[in-house]
Amino acid sequence: MFNVNGNLSDDSLITGDESISVNKKILNVWELFYKIQNEKSGSITNYKCTLYTKLYSSSNPTSTLRHYLTSKHTLHYQKPECHQTTLHFKSYSSLKSKPITDSLIDFVVTDLQPFTIVKNPEFKLLVNKLDLCYILLYRQTLKENFIKNYSIKKNNLINEIL
Description:
Layout: E1 12-15, E2 18-21, E3 33-37, E4 44-49, E5 55-57, H1 62-72, H2 94-110, H3 121-130, H4 139-161
Antiparallel strand pairs: 1-2, 3-4, 4-5
Helix pairs in contact: 2-4
C-alpha cells in the first residue's frame, strides 16, 4: 500500500476507508486530486494528488492534471476517449440558391447597403433564421455576382432600346 517514502504505492488507491484495486481505472481526474482550500477565504489554493504528494497550483487547468496522471499513474488513471460529433448540413445547390442570391443582391442595391453587410453578425443571424440551408456569400463574391447581374441587366436594357 505505502512505499518507502510514505506515499501510496501503485498497487492500490485509498480514499477514506475505501480501497480501489488496480483493475478499476479511474476516468475522472478529480477523483485523484484533493482540493486544498484557504481556511480564511475558502478559495481553492492547490490541488494535491492522492497517489503522491505532488502539488499543483489552482491556476493549472484540468488538462495539466490529466497529463500528469497519464504520464505518472497509468495503473490508476485512464484518459477518457473523446468522441466529437460532426454535424453535416446540406447546403443548397447553386441552382436552388441563385434566386436567394439574386434577391440578396437586389436588396443590397436598392437599399444602398454596403457589400460588407454580409459580414454583419445580425444580418448573418437573420439569414440563418430565414433559411438554414442557404450559405451566405462572402463580400467579394457578392460584389462579383452584382457586377454580373448588372452587366446582364444593362445589356438587356440596351437591347430593348435598340
